[in-house]
Amino acid sequence: RSSRVVQIQSQMSERAVELLGLPQDRPCLLLDVGCGSGLSGDYISEEGHYWIGMDISPAMLDVAVEREVEGDLLLADVGHGIPFRPGMFDGCISISAVQWLCNADKKSHSPPKRLYRFFSTLYTALARGSRAVLQLYPENSEQLELITAQAMRAGFTGGMVVDYPNSAKAKKFFLCLFVGTSGTLPKGLGTECASEEQHQAKFTNERTRFRNTKGKSVKKSRDWILEKKERRRRQGKEVRADTKYTGRKRRPHF
């Protein structure tokens, strides 16, 4: 994958996790719908949370396994529902996946039914008071209305958070859903009221990573690598021994 695609995916994952409003003081278990090769999961792991990823593509999940992601992976079509016990997850994110449920890939597929099955079983699998944040690329307003209507029918409250609504390139849709409580919908980034969005993270090319402000290690630093290796050891995985070269940058070869 191109580094640009990876960068956009990572930014959207960070934004989705931010919109979940997770508690700062404890690790959570999150569901990643349409997890693909596990890029969103990497960010969830970095933030100290645990995750389970679902995807319909065996090839993408093979890539995730090769990349040794820290989450558990499940090959499944979310249009058939979310097969987990009630109240299991503290939150759910999905990056660029839910709009595919609007397509009828087989004769037997009914998009409204598949969306309702997905949302109703997702609602059950989420703990009360938690959120689901689904980033999507709707083809048109009808798709957006169909997705939102089925989510509300399944019991969710909430609505659409649109980041940078005035930019053709940067505009992003996040369906922010609440379970069992109707929270206040977060404001989209890049909306007019500058004074009100001071407390929200700004997205620029040189973004300061959130975790620096939370006192966590900078990504790819030596400390970050050592923490990641330690987490893997605790999970019983084989990890190379730490040496003085761990986390050192290689010199460029001429």
UniProtKB/TrEMBL annotation:
GO terms for biological process: rRNA (guanine-N7)-methylation. GO terms for molecular function: rRNA (guanine) methyltransferase activity. It is found in: Cytoplasm; Nucleus. Its main location: cytoplasm. Residues 177-251 form the 18S rRNA (guanine(1575)-N(7))-methyltransferase Bud23 C-terminal domain. It holds the Pfam family Methyltransf_11. It comes from the Eukaryota. Residues 31-107 form the Methyltransferase type domain. Heterodimer with TRMT112; this heterodimerization is necessary for the metabolic stability and activity of the catalytic subunit BUD23. Interacts with GRIP1. Belongs to the class I-like SAM-binding methyltransferase superfamily. BUD23/WBSCR22 family. This is 18S rRNA (guanine-N(7))-methyltransferase. It comes from Dicaeum eximium.
